[in-house]
Design brief:
Pfam families: FAD_binding_8, Ferric_reduct, NAD_binding_1. GO terms for molecular function: 2 iron, 2 sulfur cluster binding; flavin adenine dinucleotide binding; metal ion binding; oxidoreductase activity. Its main location: membrane. It comes from Saccharothrix syringae. The protein has three domains: about 210 residues; about 90 residues, Elongation Factor Tu (Ef-tu), domain 3; about 120 residues, Nucleotide-binding domain of ferredoxin-NADP reductase (FNR) module (Rossmann fold), CATH 3.40.50. The chain has a five-stranded parallel β-sheet, sandwiched between helices. It has a three-stranded antiparallel β-sheet with strand order 1-2-5, with no helix packed on it. It is elongated, with a radius of gyration of 25 Å. A hairpin with a 4-residue loop joins strand 1 and strand 2. The protein is an alpha/beta fold. The chain is built from 15 helices and eleven strands. It starts with 13 loop residues before the first helix and ends in a 6-residue tail after the last strand. The mean pLDDT is about 90. Helix 1 packs antiparallel against helix 2, helix 4 packs across helix 6 and helix 14 crosses helix 15.
Length: about 450
């Protein structure tokens, strides 16, 4: 039984620090934008001025969007890609409405001055004013991405198709910035305004290049990952062991995941998100997957020595966010892999509740039993049909009477996760003690 003392929780919770920092960045830059807008003067009618203001705020949100999806390690470890992606989605819709308002207000304002119908005025602006046509194309691209990102459309698109469509956002960003440079009144109003916007866009685009290009390339060149072993766990579950150089310097933690590319002829272009199913030990990494799609099913045929390109580690589902000495882990489906890794790393008394339809569906069950015994943890396997949810507050409270005094880590299918989160609230578990990983990789 483990006797290690859990680390003391930080004075300021990492998630709160990161969330506050992002809010401060957005609000502070919005204040700067408003000041620069006012300094540029008001020598235009009200509609044109509204158009300029909504355009400037839209440009700010566009830069903020890039920050949210840059996959910067400091933000990702504290907030998680699922939360950042959710914010990216809602900021994106706000951005789209701002840019539509910018187009409508600006066109209507200039139409009122020229006495042309708004559509004719838009055509005139696009064909005679430098940079306006670029803005029209950018807006059309963003509307297309917004339509593809709507829930009804997103459910019908394969991830690869959706991701390809989403890449047009970067082209829209470049076109929008070119438009701002060419005709932005506030951009050219003073050297200070010009320097500010160049710095803002430079930081936003630089963050994307660092987080999504430079850092993955550098880490893979440094660690040179290869498949070390492929171990069938059952008829439809396989574990892949990956080794490389200097893995003790790879900042991976139990509970995190990577985007894995196995560099074979038929798989090199596919990036699949798989969590670590064992705590990193500085010598190897392990992922475990069930054959649910073409990507996971083909893992069984990987050969030892296959080169691996991994992006990550990603995710905030780690012990970094602990606030209490003891923990409750709840897992279902593929969620058992990061939870199994957490069980290996967490100190203090741990209770693991594993939700499956039938016990024979429980992945890595023998391994979990051995690990729970070695660490003095409690393991409960809860079975039942998928239509039923036996993890209501009464049942969960019976299994773990002191749940409100524990950190609760939940990972699994959306229905199960939602049910456990409701149960935790009804059992009086404070919100800052609840940590959920949602499989919602986008962006």
């Amino acid at each position: 039984m483990t006797t290690a003392r859990p680390p003391a929780p930080p004075a300021a919770r990492p998630r709160v620090v990161a969330r506050t920092g992002l809010a401060a960045v957005l609000v502070g830059n919005a204040a700067v934008v408003l000041v620069l807008f006012a300094r540029a003067g008001f020598s235009a009618n009200a509609l044109v001025l509204l158009g300029r203001l909504t355009g400037l705020l839209g440009a700010l949100l566009m830069a903020f969007q890039l920050l949210l999806v840059a996959r910067l390690p400091w933000l990702d470890r504290r907030l998680g890609m699922d939360r950042l992606t959710s914010w990216h989605r809602w900021v994106g819709f706000s951005l789209l409405w701002l840019l539509v308002a910018h187009a409508v207000f600006t066109t209507s304002g200039y139409a009122a001055q020229s006495s042309l119908p708004p559509v004719d005025e838009l055509v005139s602006l696009a064909t005679t004013v430098e940079g306006v046509l670029r803005a029209v194309v950018a807006l059309v691209l963003l509307v297309g991405v917004g339509v593809a990102s709507a829930r009804a459309a997103r459910r019908r698109l394969a991830y690869e198709t959706w991701h390809f469509v989403h890449l047009y956002t970067y082209l829209a960003v470049v076109l929008a910035f070119a438009h701002q440079v060419a005709v932005g009144t506030t951009f050219t109003a003073s050297p200070l305004a010009t320097a500010y916007w160049w710095a803002l866009w430079g930081c936003a685009l630089g963050a994307v290049l660092v987080g999504r290009v430079a850092l993955p390339l550098w880490r893979n060149a440094r660690h040179r990952l290869r498949v070390a072993a492929v171990v069938p766990e059952s008829d439809d579950v396989v574990s892949v062991h990956v080794t490389g150089r200097d893995l003790d310097r790879l900042p991976a933690r139990a509970g995190q995941f990577f985007l894995w590319r196995f560099l074979t002829r038929d798989r090199w272009w596919q990036a699949n998100p798989f969590s670590l199913s064992a705590a990193p030990d500085g010598r190897s990494l392990r992922l475990t997957a069930k054959a649910l799609g073409d990507g996971s099913a083909s893992l069984r045929s990987l050969r030892v020595g296959t080169r691996v390109f991994a992006e990550g580690p990603y995710g905030a589902f780690t012990a970094m966010h602990r606030t209490r000495p003891n923990a409750l882990l709840v897992a279902g489906g593929a969620g058992i892999t990061p939870v199994r890794a957490l069980l290996e790393e967490l100190t203090g008394h741990v209770v693991l509740v594993y939700r499956v339809t039938r016990e024979r569906d429980a992945v890595l069950l023998d391994e979990l039993r051995g690990l729970a015994h070695a660490r003095g943890a409690e393991l409960h396997v809860v079975t039942g049909p998928s239509a039923a949810e036996p993890l209501g507050p009464r049942a969960l409270g019976a299994l773990v009477p002191d749940a409100r005094d524990r950190d609760v880590f939940v990972c699994g299918p959306p229905g199960m996760t939602a049910a456990v989160l409701r149960s935790a609230r009804e059992l009086g578990v404070p919100g800052h003690q609840v940590h959920a990983e949602r499989f919602g990789l986008t962006g």
